[in-house]
Design goal:
By secondary structure, this protein is an alpha+beta fold. It has a single domain (7-165), classed as Beta Barrel (OB fold (Dihydrolipoamide Acetyltransferase, E2P)). It is built from four helices and ten strands. The strands form two sheets. The protein has a five-stranded mixed β-sheet with strand order 8-1-2-10-9. The longest helix is centred in the last third of the chain and has 16 residues, at 150-165. The chain is globular, with a radius of gyration of 17 Å.
Length: 166
Amino acid sequence: MSKHESKTELRSGAERYLAFTLGAEQYAVPLLSVKEVVALPETTRVPYTPPHFLGIMNLRGQIISLFDLRLKLGMKADNGPESAVIICDLNPLSFGVVVNSVDSVLSLFKDDIKSKPEIESKIKTDYIQGVTQRQGKLVLLLDVAKALSIDEILAIKRNAAANLAS
């Protein structure tokens, strides 16, 4: 097998990630978990929810919970002209996360992804899947479901449904 054939074979094994920014840092999530990217919508606040839960939005007839990933990760929430919502689809849950900007789609091979560094923290960091490098900057690969906690999402959905019903 020639060197060229070997590279072609590797290309077919690449995983794709959606790259975005939170504050000044770059992150990415597996593209398979992304349904779409939309502009910041009008939201309806839900009382007695955590600050990073922005409320609910209507996406073509589907009610979607909306989270600010920056607030959840302890960053400043600063919306600008490029702020967007990434609609994540983790069957059966769909939810949106607000980010500063969506940058590109990355094709990464297993060798491009380094394991996450050991982080001494009282806060769980298992939402970080790995690290890669892009244009001289480090990009953290995230598992959004772990960052937000599926239990938290389900509880907020139940509370939102109960508040809408009353």
